[in-house]
Design brief:
With 343 residues, this protein is an alpha+beta fold. Among the domains are: 122 residues, Dna Ligase, domain 1 (2-Layer Sandwich), CATH 3.30.1490; 37 residues, no CATH class. 61% of the residues lie in helices and 13% in strands. The strands form two sheets. Strands 1-7-6-2-3 form a five-stranded antiparallel sheet, with helices on one face. A two-stranded antiparallel sheet has the order 4-5. Strand 2 and strand 3 form a beta hairpin. Helix 5 packs antiparallel against helix 6.
Length: 343
Amino acid sequence: MYDHLQFEKLDEIEKVIREHCKRITLITLHEVADRNAYPQIGRVTFGAVDLGAFIEADENNERDEDDDEDGDESDGDEDTAEETLGDLADADNGVPYLKLADAAVAWIKHLVSQNIIGEREAKFKVNLWRGKGDKVIYSSRFLVTNLEWEPPAAIVATPPALPLAFPDTSPEPRTWRALGEGYTHLIALMQQSYQHLAALQGAHITATSGQLARTQKSNENIVGELIKLRIGAYEVEANSRGQEGDSRVRDDLAKEFVSQLGTLGRAWVASKAGMPPEMLELADIVGSSPELQEALKNPAVLKVLREEKSRKELAALLILATQTEAPPANDAGTPPQDRAAAA
């Protein structure tokens, strides 16, 4: 049945199966596809039920039974009893373990013949298990060669048919010339567009700068006119007052005039030089104090103020002075009504 297959090392596996036939409970067959790949192609329980289809009938046993019928009945019964006890110890469901071993080999050959179709040779692996199939008793590989294998017929590649000749449809020289001229004209238009955009941007920047300059000059003129109006208003108010209390009125008017003039001056300087109002107020405070002016003229004081650490300490000291300053005793102890009466 398997004359077209040549098995190598399967005899050794068969010998091991016959030696351990009483311990084997399960047999698995794997195909060796790679060094680390062993896909399983079949498994069978080592028993008369699963291997029944591969158990061959024993003709010698049938002949022995016929001879026993023709012989002595008493002797036959004694021999049969002894052989029966021995067979029960070495059989599974009445089938001897050696027959099960032969059936297992036949099962292996059957699966191999089905999995080697179309191949010249293949490798397989057999695992013998015991107990509940959790421990391997023996594992080995064997090689199978298909003696009837023939290489497939070579397929002759037919070269593709050559395409038919087509007429030359490339453009004429005048067409290429027209395309070049059109491309040159397009580049010239793009350059002119960029130049025009640059000219428009320059004109817009110039016009905006002129507008800003005129706006700044108008603001300066408005501040000057306001100062003149304030001076005229104070002169008219001073002349309209009587001779009585001229000195006091003139002092009050002068203070208010100087205050307003300083406010307008600071606004004019802020618009002209871009300085914040706080810096202008600080300049007024320093200018009104001769002591501060003399201290700032001292080179040693200027040297200290140029150091960043000294400026930070001076700022911290000024802030601490504003936090620890206490109200005067007279103001704290005098009720609001008494202060109003005193005023």
